[in-house]
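Objective 1b: paired records.
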Amino acid sequence: AALLTSACATSMAPPARAPITVGIIAINDFHGAIAPPRQSVPVGQPDGTVVQVPAGGAAWMASAIDAIRARYAYHLTVSAGDMIGGSQLNSTLFLDEPTIGVMNRIGLDFNAVGNHEFDEGIDELKRKQAGGCIQHALRKPCQVEPFKGAAFSFLAANVFTRDGGTLFPATALRRFGKGHDRVTVGLIGLTLKGTEHLVSPSGIEGIRFADEAETVNALVPGLKARGVDAVVLLIHQGGRTKGLPNPSGCNALWGDILPILDKLDARIDVVVSGHTHWDYVCDYATINPAKPFLLTSAAVYGEEVTDIALQIDPRRHRVVGKQARNVIVQSPGYANARGPIRA
């Protein structure tokens, strides 16, 4: 009887479940680079030389994103700010409506506001989200066609209005899978506190930019209380590396984002960064063992896309594995004063 009881207990134990993989496709600092920007990504070689790879442009970036998405049954596409502003002329002339349209077609899910999102003021930024043709800037909107606004959501956790609320939502949730295999990814999006010093004061009247780490740390417990299994932070602040260029390297990371990271809640799983126009993929635990974040940045102008994979255990409600790599968005070759840059 004892053997029978033991056998029954074993047969009724819940089967182990494989982790659920969620792909996060990330960009930053696109700056309305719809056309190839005639720039290149430097890649260090084993012999110490550097190869320049022509990269960027919305059509090529869209293809790269589609190829990465095809690897994942579940995925999110996100931006860490400065998607608009400081843009190419073909987007700037039309108040970046073309860039919003491009991102709608690509299928962007979320964009954390950066400092350049505020270039034309708060009311114009709200129009970018909601759509419409009311003029808030020097240039007239809707010069080509009616503007429907962004099909994706802006996030602005540390951008507070006079009434104490945030300009855009602070957080967002995305759920993947069904039943016992369902997992939830929580996102926080914010800009650097110093945005107030980088844009015209008249355009941000009545707005307060709060401390980055304090804002994030106040939000993480609430996300966890809502059943979030993985926390992804989109922050428009970043760093730089040193040495031979490596798009997916993290050699001697330095910059303004480090003191922010060192103060963040350790329950954050991934930090997608921007602002410095640099590329890196860092296991931040090698820098600060108490902060085991995966830190990424994908350069500028759509020259790179970050492919992030999260393995989430739906039983333990936590991330059990994470990897990332920067994918160069190779585009046609061009020539500059230094000679040809070949694809």
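Objective 1b, second protein:
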Amino acid sequence: MLFNSAEYLLFLPIVLGVYWSLSKQLRAQNAWVLLASYVFYGWWDWRFLALLFGTTLNDYLCAIGMTRFEHRSQRRALLTASIVVNLGVLGFFKYYNFFVTSFIDAFARLGVELHSPTLKVILPIGISFYTFQALTYTISVYRGTVKPTRDPITFFAYVAFFPQLVAGPIERAGHLLPQFQKPRVVSAAGFADGLRQMTWGFFCKLVVADNCAVVVNGLFDQPVPLAGSVVLVASLCFAFQIYADFSGYSHIALGTARLLGFELMQNFATPYFAQSVPEFWRRWHISLSTWFRDYVYIPLGGSRVGKGHQALNLMATFMLSGLWHGANWTFVVWGFLHGAYSVPRVLIGEPLARFAQSANALVRIPTVLFRVALTFTLVLVAWIFFRARDVRTAFGMIVQLLSPSLLTSPVAALRGFGVLSSLGYAAFGIAVLLILEFLQRDKPHALAFDDQSPLLRRWPAYTAVAAFVLLLRYTGGSLDFIYFQF
């Protein structure tokens, strides 16, 4: 079920109505959330409910089993079982054909022809997200930082919690699970802010991301080479499409959770205002970047080792992060680029940051602007690999960006591709997004005004954003959220 669908507009009020009527019955509330979550997920394809149920049951039993053994080796065996089952299922559905095809292509280059045993494997929606969320539970139980729950309804609801089931944020067991174990209170202020955050999420998705998608799909999928200026337009639109699409989903998820009395972790914090690539990753998809930090980077040695070893740890973490996003070499290259961007900070620090801190205001402001522009440019180049059909196409687009065709006017080409009107809506939406997020950069979302803020500032902003959603939204068929495919 999509947040931006008519079904969800009917589904959510029903869920809320029954949920609130059970306000004094915690176990019944959790059971209702679990049922609603399975309906939400099964709306896409009910067959994969068995997969979700099976992996969740495995983690539930493994965690309980850890409490029955005192020897570390026995507990480690159960943790290994949890990890193997979760990553084995994820690996089969997401990477089987990728690795088989890559293996066959490698032999083909050596002149050896192999027959392809590939399968028509459908990728279950959200499997990367709920797999990682479940693993935080068993790993935390093994480490002793979370006590295993013997209430299956509570645990199953934690794994399948519908607001963030299919695209995050990837919650930690220590943060979300306790919220299922105690009564929740939905305050009037929390409810109102949840609605505001959902409104902002719908603006990001329907006005910015979906209008950008028309431009991006119309340009990136062209079989002929594009002029550098057109590549630049396509790349900028994709940068804001993926940001507005994914942050929009996160805002709707967080807002929906607040209507139920839950607090989910913030997943985005104005990443395009970051002054370095490491800072970008502290602001972008925070739940995933911290997951890889805690469960991959730090176990590899993190920053406790020498600089060379630390740089290798960083590269490995980013390349695994790239592979997490999809079974394509374009994602691996994308991860490699972000690792390469981050390694110099490990080896030489950030001289520009030190300079900006020590300089006076006249020098500091241009330095900060330069750092933001440089960071965005580096991220933009990496996004080309993320979106392109294959690595060769991505390199070809970058070559065009470096050619004289970058200085040509893109208007004629854009008119020929039929994307000018959508580009106009998208550009307006991007401008509104950047202005509001800059003004509200210290807040969890752009419509999170303080109660002390003047009414003449708050209500015009609420009204304008809601009007933009109604008037400027993409009116074609419902578009999936980009991160559903991951």
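The chain is about 70% helix and 0% strand. Residues 26 and 183 are 6 Å apart (CA to CA).
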